[in-house]
Amino acid sequence: METVSLICKKKEVLDFYKNHPNLDFETMNLIFVTIMQNLMQDMNSSLNSNIATQLLNQIQGLQNQMNFVSENVVKLQSDTIMNFSAKFSEFKREYIDDVKMVLTNNTVDKIAPLIKDHNSILLDKTQLMLNDVVPKNNEQLTKQLQEILKVFHSSISDETNQLLKSTINQQTLTDFINTLDNKFLSAQSNSQQILNSIITSSEHRLDSRINEIKTSTEQHIQDIKHLSNTSQTSQSLLQNNVSELLKKMEISSVKGKCSENVLFNILQSLYSTAQIEIVGDQKETGDIMLMRKNKPTILIENKNWNKNVIQEEVKKFIRDVETQNCCGLFLSQNFGVANKENFEININNGNVLLYVHEVNNDAEKIKIAIDIIDNFKIKLDEVIVTNGDGYNIDKEVLDEINKEYQLFATHKLLQIKTVKDFSSKMVKQLEDLQLPSLEHFLSTKYAFSSSKYICEFCEYVAKNQSAMSAHKRGCKGKTNICGDSDNVSPISETIQQTNIVIQTAPESGKRVSSRKK
């Protein structure tokens, strides 16, 4: 198992944790790591007020923890002094009482060993008391107290030896007891001074550290406030930009421009070899001009209104077509056109004009409308003018042709929709006809051809029908074929079916295939 360790070589940090042994190194670092992670994760323009509030709460919590730790340290050190003084006073009282009893109730030859025993007991008690009261990891304090107690024990031993060498009477006993009492008081006073000095220095260091953390915290708070203000400014700017964009979309000119761009992209995908120009900013040119090789030029007028297009716009469209002397396609994206039927065909100076309702940027509708204009224009040119000799078409016949084309366009759209729905349902049902277990078993015994989706234009192999549909939308082979189909008349071709016969020799496991055409 990998061992993870934390190493610090800075003397200032080591001294801090030595002087405050109740602070765990790992716990304190985890607290600061959590704060830094929260600060670093969202130091960007997207910092919002909620995150800033959370960070401020965490920093405030850290300050409260540090204050709590400081109070606990002071309380712990005060309790240490009180416990040390109380136990030391108790040892003094017991020792003096024992010495008085020894000196009073024993002969001279028995006093010396008894006092030495009591001195040894006092030394052991003070050492145990020192180990219990003073924290074990505070080496500096322990060392200083041991030096004081060592001097204290040495002085008591000296006083005891002097007493034993002198004449023992009531006066010498009283002087000896008073001397012991003074020695105890001196040792206790020196110990308390050391403890007080260490507590004072610890408090100063802790206060200094807390002030540093407080200063750093205040700086972080200012940075967070600055980031929060910056984020709010960016959000306000973004909201203003979005609001301005939405307001612009309500303007008819901007709305019409967006619709023109959508229509332009549709035409680009339908006619990759055509010259398509947005001419809405030019006079008497409509919105888009569609120019193709060996095909009539078409002026396209696009209307993205929330109501039926009025008659004045139709008159303007006819005037533009007359000025450009070309065919025209009038598209109403959402509603109809005043005084014009859906897919209504008009003839104007030998040019074909077509009106389409509720287009909704349907590429199929747009392509059908352009195909109608192309085919109608070809037939119209054949009928009207040949070598100066003209042919007249009765208005009734022309009206019938117009009605037939309208009916044809409507039925064509309906049939296309029906075929698409039927085709999609049949494909889905056929895809559901699968025998995966049988297919897996037979594939281990025979040469097996699994179902694949292959593009008929470029032989691209797709994983499923969705992938094939996505491929066909941008297939270069399809684009080239569609471009050529604009110039080449449809021809009928015979497709020969290929039957594949697979034979298997069970004994050898070899597969033999032959192809018949």
Automatic annotation (TrEMBL):
Organism, scientific name: viral metagenome
Name under which the protein is recorded: Restriction endonuclease type IV Mrr domain-containing protein
Keyword tags: Coiled coil
Coiled-coil positions: 52-79
